[in-house]
Records
---
Amino acid sequence: MPEFDRERLRWMYTQMLRIREFEERVKGTFEEHPGTIRGHTHLADGAEASIVGSLAALREDDQLLATYRCHGYPLVLGTDPKAIMAEIYGRRDGLCGGYGGSMHLTDVGRGFLGTSGIVGQGIPHATGAAYAAQIRGKGQVVLSFFGDGASKQGAFHESLNIASLWKLPIVFVMENNNYNVVTRVEQEDANAAAGEPLAVKAKAFSMPGETVDGGDPVAVHETVGAAVDRARSGEGPTLVESLVYRLSAHGNLIAPPGVPLHYPEHEAVAVFGNTEEYEAARRGDPVPRFRGRLVEDGTLSAEEADEIAERVRAEMQEAVDFALASPFPAAEEAVEYVYA
Amino acid sequence: MRELPYIAAIGEAIHQEMERDESVLYFGQNIATTDDDPYLKAFGSERVRVTPISETAEIGMAIGAAMAGYRPVVELYMAEFMLVAMDQVVNEANRFHYMTKGQVKVPVVLKAGYGFTAGWAGQHTGTIYGMFMGVPGLKVALPATPADAKGLMTAAIRDDNPVVFFHHYLLTLEHGDVPEGEHVVPLGQANVVREGGDVTIVALGYMLGQALEAAEQLAGEGVSAEVIDPRTLAPLDTATILASVEKTGRLVVVDQSTRHGSAAAVIAAEAASEGFSSLKAPVQLICALDATVPYSEPMEQYLLPDAAKIVAAVLESPVAA
């Protein structure tokens, strides 16, 4: 890892751990504080390396848009976890004042322009933001994050076509976690069924398509970084397929009416009875994997790694405490912000 | 003041706003495909672009560009093409300002022609604005005259919200007085086009012309009709309509849509709910008959509201003593 200095690697590890710990606290809330989180939440555990490696490639004035599985990105961008947790708890001090919730985190000031809860539909928004960046002419790049399922939507194909045609400064980061809710990728994707990587879809739009190990933040950084450089230099978009494995189920159990329930087992186990697949993913968990690598090569001592973990745990405990203490918005505020 | 065709009035508004504000973009299908395109010549290929026939991407990209600080006008040609990308119109563009507690604004104008009842048969003749008027966060403009076409387009481009701008295809070459220079018609302000005391006729879009013709005929029968053009469906200027109903006691709403999908039904409900004590007769809805628009001319015309149907409805209406 010659091009990464020690501090950068430690920063990456810390950010991965922050996402993991945050998501663990969200998950834990269902049992520790039942009823606190409403509706549906989607966790990024397993995708930490992919998120951190991707965002590490950005410049401060770059922008990104993502999906309903959106807790990880703002954490890395510097959004206060207290505001994120308060949003997920529906509180007044939330990042979006309780108007958006878990699926719609947005922090415009940090370049995080928006998140669509409808699969694939945020891809054209990111493409439009890239068009804006192209017109503005200041060398900004946009990252568009979405899952493998989204690549079956027309919005994906229409957007990649225009992005390539117009040479827009955008990188499409497909986090391929192998499952669209409970549908396995080879059940719905012609490339996967044929044993090909999903990155081959790029070929149809005459743009580069790369597949990368999304469990390795350094590899992701190299691949996304090269694509960002390419976009910034005016050569157009790239499709990056980042192979991740979400370590939790698609979302928490939904049991209407009433209180949403805890997270069930991952679909590999709960639906397909494929315990071995899930256990293998657990063994390859990117967070301990990266820690092991950093400790082994001397970037981080075991004691330092423990200290980081301790700090992160305290930070996320504060986020939970803050969010629990934050008041609800006044009910009558529900009719504000309908129009700008 | 000089005369301009309706479609040129819309074009003038877009052109003037692009001149006034560099953040205004204009893109969509089948525009700017040659170097002598007037918008392309005036504003360049960064701000004016032809897009592939990809409505989801066109509208979605307009939303993204708007989030990033621009004010796109999307040329959609026909209103029905929005149906291909309905999520972007009613579940994306309109939601972000609200869901982010105002962090994001989406000033997008979707320019959509509708109601091409001139032999375009079932799929290009729809009058579908009713679908959009109850969508929170979305505004709906419905110009019936060249002057309003210019003024409402100007207001739509300047508005910080997504606006669906419906222009009627049969009005395309209709001429009318259009103010030169800056001309803004505020969204949410109805126009009392003809004053009268016996009956209020609210006419939507293209139906304004039919209603005015009917009012003229009714005058010959001794009935004084007040004709109101709401001009925008969202926001809807309910106050102007209710004030008129208070004066006349009778309300007829004319809409080229089919009844249950019509804006007329909503206006009738507002009058029944908020103006009941003023009403001396049941509210009458004059809408398209409930069928897909057919190709053949006599059948097509049979389905649609026109001046004769309005006159007949008013004259046959029971009036409380």
---
Amino acid sequence: MTGKKPVSHVPHKRAHATKIMPGAYPVFPRKIASSLLHALRDPEVVATAARVVAEKAEDLRIAVLAHVDRIADAARAADPVATFEQAHEIRGLAGNAGLVATGRIANGLCRYLDASRRAGRQPDQELVALHLEAIARAAHAEDEATRLGDTVANELAALVDKKLS
Amino acid sequence: MSGATFDHLKAMIVEDNVHMRTLLRSLLMALGINHVYEAGNGADAFVILRDKSPDLILTDLSMKPVDGIAFTSEVRLSHDSPNPYVPIIMVTGHTERHKVEAARDAGVTEFLAKPITAQGLFLRIAEIVERPRPYVRCAEYFGPDRRRRADERHPGPWRRHEDLESGMRVE
């Protein structure tokens, strides 16, 4: 035995696939497509849209802080599903709120809780608590976007990797 | 500035977070798309889809009671779907591989990772408009071709019967 899988000479039963090309199904009419592409690439339109995103940052920061309170409640209730849901909300909002490190830490916590759930393991409460503390500190910090926030996010990501390995 | 408005275009945002819905709506309106419908989950979105038949859908992944993956499957596969070919951009903070793969296999056209940027959203819409992808129908899947690039230099291995014979049947 070489350890190699034996080659099968029985043909595989393969699924039949049909390809439907654009035009055979409805696509954007040429005139609309052309003016839409023009708008999508217009530097002024892009700049206006980027300003719209920036203007929402403060509202989103307030929303993140509300979720930070809720995630603490979920953790106190030892509810990993609710903890994941709140961490997921935080990671989804934080980037657009200008809370980059907060988002990275919340993403790490989501990764850990999701992997624990899929493995059928109870999450390590100490590691969850570390993430929650870091999320709360980062979200409230005036200087969130500093190397300190990044360092904390990196250290916690390393801890998660170690736990999951 | 182009200043164009697209009165014939209708978009739908499916997102349970009101802040994200507002942000996405503002971006579409900055682009000139003023007919924007909103739903807080996949079940409500399907009702709007049947009523308004939007030309473009932006959907979140995690929502209750019907999430973005189940909604996408419904759009693609349900016999009362008004347009199974409608482009669907999944806007998600999920980075878990199994979630992204499930969304792709449900028939999502494009992914946009959060945080949202104007450039990121506009690039995905441009891709949909400029390079609409073929759709594939087989026993296990209906949706945009998941093999994005047909590389003619690719020497194989070819996985499908049709690849080996004469390429996929094209409608």
---
Amino acid sequence: MITAKNIVKRFGNLTAVNDISFELKKGETFGLLGPNGAGKTTTINMMVGVLKPDEGTISLNGTADPTRPEVRMQIGNAPQSIALYEELTAVENLRFFGRMYNLSGKKLKERVEWAIEFAGLKERRNSRVNTYSGGMKRRLNLACAMVHDPPMLLLDEPTVGVDPQSRNAIFDCIEKLIREGRTIVYTTHYMEEAQRLCDRVAIIDQGRILALDTIDKLIESHGGVSVIEAELAKRPDGNLNIPGEINGTSLRIETNNTLDAINKLAAAGLDVTTLNIHKADLETVFLNLTGRSLRD
Amino acid sequence: MRAIFNLALKDLLLLWRDKAGMFWVLAFPLIMALFFGSIFSGGGGSSAIGVALIDLDQSDNSKVFVEELKKSEALKVNTALGLDSARNFVRKGNLTAYILVKKGFGESTFFSRSDSGGLELGIDPSRKAEAGFLEGLITQALFKPMQQMFSDPSKTQEMIDQQMSELSDDVVAQNPELSHLKEMFANLNSFMGEVDSTELNANSPMQGPDIEVVEVSRTGDRPKSSWEITFPQSIIWALIGCAAAFAISIVIERVRGTFLRLRLAPISKMQILLGKGLACFLACVMVMIAILGFGILVFGVRIGNSLHLLLAIVASAVCFVGVMMLISVLGKTENAVAGSGWGIMLIFSMTGGGMIPLLAMPDWMVKVSHFSPVKWSILAAEGAIWRSFSFNEMLLPLGVLISIGIVGFTIGVTILSKSDG
């Protein structure tokens, strides 16, 4: 559905996107993860035709020119900033953006009603946007991208600056879209979001894709070992067939097979008072790949 | 085309809901029109010239002169001040001038001049026009005592007797030419003794021709009232307000991301910008019609030629759409565009007659005004309202306005296109 081949984008001396390639299948949710300034938004802007790649090609549904109206009708974009008219109501915003996608009459009315329902703004449908909370604005921002019912969605950090309740509501909305079989490109630097929503993830930094795979495979290949920490009731006597190191009553095990290590611990008959398992996750993968130094 | 209209309607709705924006677009220009209109029309108080009059002579003639000046509707005469106070009042600008009637004024007659008598007119040198006007009024008043003297034979005989006494035999002996004058005085004295004063008053040649003041409505190339100057001027403020509001709205859309969102819709960038231009154009036309309509209904502003006015409105709106587009690329933030936009607009307004009427500008400023769209917009509106421009005369301001609009729009759109990739 979306194919990027060796795309490069430069701004003066800065190479924002450096030889990126990926392919998305229909109905897939694809995560673009990277620190600030990694090149995520530039990649999205090239995908929708706002920016032209200096090298390489991007094609959507087999069309190399994403600026063509029939291609744009297939795409919904929820930008990172809340791109709404604050002096208009939710209904007025949706109606306006719907008209921009050639909706009119009964179809427009139906889609506006759907979008209001989707965003959970039924009670405040006729209030001006400048009276909304941050979460309501984010939901409306997403609904405006969906008002013309596109099969392909580009969501650029859609949960920035919202409270946990609103974030969950947005997740619910996106999961509904995933169930409907829409193709989604999702950029974020919140790892738990990508882990919850994405089928595949590309970790991007300084304009390059560092890794691209399913989350399980990324953890397997880049996550490193899991750590089991146990606190014992008393120091064990003699030699025991257990992995890891014992320091007094503390036991630390580093392993690639967590379940096997726990089974061995149980078989040794030790009196364990507390047990903590630190399993490698996407954040570990991200930090392992992009480093721990600050990005400003 | 439907997309452009939808974009324009959205912008008009946003402007309508922006109270501050509406103030600058509609309320402020009306306030300007009312404020300057009331100042120039004299509606706020007397338009008479304030003068102090000090009569040191206190003769019959000086009293007639003073009374005559007091009668003038063009003057507001204050006779209660001394000379020093009067000078101070003029210096501070509280009075336009003072008139000092010197001692000996009454002895100055038609036939002789007193060395000591006379008048002193004290006036600020910067008020030359008022000085000339005052001299005219004073001259008119000076003739009144002379007229009264010749209308009363006994007074004339008194004056002649005085003059004849001065022409003694010794004086005539030294200057034989004066014997003819003495002879003329004797004949005149004899004539004055024989005439009927009532008949003389009725047919006196000294009364001059009767001046009948007839009010004639001004037509042609002069405004009937100050409102016909201030309302065309005020629509400039409305146009400036519209151009600034829409230029800022373009930046706001770019900063907030709605411009990007629109660019991802299946419409071209040109359609988006044309939508913005159409909204600005419609807003300009609507506020111009609203303000001029107010002027016509409430202050009786006459429209010389409705078709010409319509053309002036359309051309001015086109011009300020171009100016708007040009201003929108002067900065990347709301503050930058608002600051630079209003700065440029104020210069246009100052030099183009938005603040000082074109009629009152010195020559050099009139030349500078050619570079301001404000001047051409005012000229087009005035041409249709009171200057009685023919269609051919309208073509110049209309052409300049439309050219500025096209050039501004093209430059603005080109820069916007490049800056957004």
---
Amino acid sequence: MIRFENVGLRYGMGQEVLRDVSLEIAPRSFQFLTGPSGAGKTTLMRLLFMSLKPTRGLISVFGADTARVTRAELPALRRRIGVVFQDFRLLDHLTTYENVALPLRVSGKAESDYRADVVDLLEWVGLGERMHVLPPVLSGGEKQRAAIARALITKPEILLADEPTGNVDPPLARRLLRLFVELNRLGTSVLIATHDLALMEQFDARRIVLAEGRVRIYE
Amino acid sequence: MPGASSWPKDGSGSTSEAMARDERPDPNRPAPPSPREVRASLSSSIGLGRGRGGRGDRSAEPEFDLRSPQIEASGEAAFVDPGETFDPGATVRPTDAEGVRDAVRGATPRRSASPRRKSAKRREERRVVATEAAGGRDIVPPQAIAGRALVLVVAIMGFLACLAVGGLSLVAEAARDWQLDVSREVTIQVKPIDGTAIEPRLKKATEIAEATRGVKSVRLIGERESEALLQPWLGSGLDLAALPIPRLVVLDLSDPAAADLAGLKARIGTEVRGATVDDHAVWAARLRTMAGTMVVAGFGVVVLMLAAMVLSVVFATRAAMAGNRDVIEVLHFVGAEDRFIAAEFQRHFLKLGLVGGAIGGAVAIVAFLVVDAVTRVRGDALADQAHALFGGFSVGWTGHLGAVAVVALVAVLTAVTSRFTVLGHLGRLE
């Protein structure tokens, strides 16, 4: 699904942030990406959703070499990936409903075609009463759920979540984890970037540990 | 695919049951589940669903069975907000809905609202829902674009461009009228020759003129009339009989194109001594040159103004993109194509261009009408001169049509400029 081969990345003329990273994210797999702060987790996530290009090595996403992917081909690949950002990245001038529907709207679907699905998903994540509310008045947990709903609405083949429990309390973190586990059980590959050891201890899954720019994988 | 009606309401579903289905990894991965499938499965397995009632339906929710093979049960309800105390027995609070509506407007929720306020909130909520149903509000936030300033710039440029087009139309029409008048009139000048009477030659010239094809009327300018024509230069009270003053025969042509001026010139030249035909070709050529110069200069002015407007739009678009960098990033991450993003900006700038152009065009048309009315009413020397030159400051339908065309051009230029600016900017990213 996603494959890294000897990937290295440096910003400008600085030192390599990532060195010789080789890993594979298989279909329907579940993994945590962890490591100390500054180890390069977010950089690795950005490589995964093609926001950055490596300075060396090969990254293959759904069989496509990202070095050869053109700008015109990127949107189609990104639509197969759901991303949950640590800071949610909800658009503050759009309602919760519009934020969650955004991936469908940008793909050119008519509102009447997706309304039922978006409403269902919002109700399912407990935001049924908050769907016409603007994000600034949502709580942290509600924003997190809206961000997750936005990532899920297009039925992605892989879900990348960057510190999805960083802004919520432990009970909600457990529920979010359970949500990701269930999504994985239904066939979606999941990668959760976190440095929350307590969260990882709750679920036995593959761990990709980043330290000093290098990767170690614990199956 | 299970519909909303299939949501578990009695708590019959459980995580363990769902897990028991044990869908192991399959190399032949089926299509990803739809949101409804995901929702239905998760609702039944880990009790994340709340049903259609949202918060208000908590009392009707199943007890959440959070036990799973891997995750320790916590016994708490799913997706409770941090800091929020979950009360499984809570009933719907009437103020919940009001709070939501307040939040829609970004206002502080109030517990007690007047009927008028409630009605306004309901209207606001309906408006929000209607906006969503109509495809959602603009993805590019309107307030992030220096809209008013740009509308003002576009309006001013549009106004000046419309004035230029109106002025062009006025000059072009006046020049055409002058040219038509000049080319419809031909003059035969008969010079006095010592020892030869002028009257027979005038008579002969008149006869030849009357016999020429395309001549509508022939008028001999009498002596008194000739003297009157010279009076402004020579003064009154002079005896002009002693001066060799040429006499004129004025021909009015019915159709300048069909008139046989070459034949007339040939016959007058051979048959009437001391007579010449002046068809005002020199004047007509000068008029044509002047009108052409004015038109080219006017177009140049219009093009320069539109170029300045385009540059303003380029700067405004770049500023809008810089101010919406986070929005553009999110759009890229959710799979938006560059042309979708460009279309969002284009739609926005098209509106601004239309509004600005319409304001500029409307003010210009009002200005035309006011100037026309003033020059008609005043009747002073200035108005008389203007009237003599232009035949009235009335901008014809071509001028008004030109103003409308300028408005449309301004709007289209604004939209297209923003589109290409966005596409160019996005193309340089990454």
